[in-house]
Design goal:
mainly alpha, two-stranded antiparallel ribbon, 2 strands, 65% helix
Length: 278
């Protein structure tokens, strides 16, 4: 079976329907509490690096139900409906829900792995600055190293940094500079990751594997076989994940991880069936 042909197909099966409702309710809660002083759903439910003081184990699941804006949730939920409905009709609700959650967890773990790889050097640079503070030449050296490893961080504080390097005994200037750097450090360490995209990429991978020759209409106009769309999209995400471009706030490795986990699961479940990928 390489092409999906509907038979007794439910447009909105049980788990897909409940996923849409739950994500919608979480999004409404995000909007409601967004302006609340001193309270942030992101701090509690979004996924954080495990080195962050904000990390909690339940975030591995709860981050999948939070979204950044309307188009973020719309895109993910459209994909859940589009691919998830087919898969739930094929597998049944229990297996589909298990698949969805495992893909989301796999995506989160891969994201945390690469996030840890990124923040460990930052943590080391910050620890070196704190340890060297007040030591004159040692602090200047640590400051240069921090700036080299995190280019552009000091920004308009370069004049202050030069002042501290020239006069390391200036406690007030040093404290001001450290406060500035600490804010950058904490903002990066506590970066929140949200969205169902990791699980959605698992759904896409499963759909592509099971129905590679089904046509998907891009922008409802351009027909493309699922296998070419899936391969192209995965290659795109993998390329930008490896590039790790500064300013890219998309969790590319979560997408890659979700797709890999989804593909491995569906291949295991479907290993007794011969596949023809053409």
């Amino acid at each position: 079976m390489t092409e999906f042909r509907p038979s007794r197909f439910e447009i909105l099966p049980t788990i897909v329907k409940n996923l849409l409702i739950i994500n919608g309710l979480f999004y409404l809660a995000q909007i409601t509490f967004k302006s609340s002083a001193g309270f942030s759903l992101d701090n509690i439910l979004a996924l954080h690096a495990w080195q962050s003081s904000l990390f909690r184990p339940w975030q591995l699941v709860t981050h999948m139900f939070l979204h950044g804006d309307f188009w973020h949730i719309f895109g993910n939920m459209f994909a859940v409906w589009m691919f998830g409905s087919v898969l739930e009709n094929l597998w049944g609700p229990t297996r589909f829900l298990l698949f969805y959650i495992i893909c989301g967890l796999g995506a989160a773990l891969m994201h945390l792995l690469f996030l840890s790889y990124e923040v460990i050097p930052l943590m080391a640079d910050w620890a070196a600055l704190v340890q060297a503070q007040g030591s004159g030449v040692g602090f200047a050296k640590a400051l240069h190293a921090f700036n080299d490893h995190n280019p552009g961080v000091l920004g308009n504080q370069l004049e202050l940094a030069n002042q501290v390097i020239a006069n390391p005994t200036d406690v007030q200037a040093t404290n001001t500079l450290m406060t500035w750097i600490q804010s950058y450090y904490e903002a990066n360490l506590n970066t929140a990751t949200i969205g169902a995209s990791g699980a959605v990429f698992g759904l896409l991978a499963a759909f592509v594997y099971l129905f590679p020759n089904t046509y998907i209409y891009l922008y409802f106009l351009v027909p493309v076989k699922a296998k070419w769309l899936g391969i192209g999209y995965f290659a795109y995400e993998l390329y930008y994940a490896v590039q790790n471009s500064g300013g890219d706030n998309v969790a590319r490795w979560a997408h890659v991880g979700g797709a890999i986990v989804g593909l491995l699961i569906v291949m295991t479940w479907n290993k007794k069936n011969r596949k023809t990928f053409y």
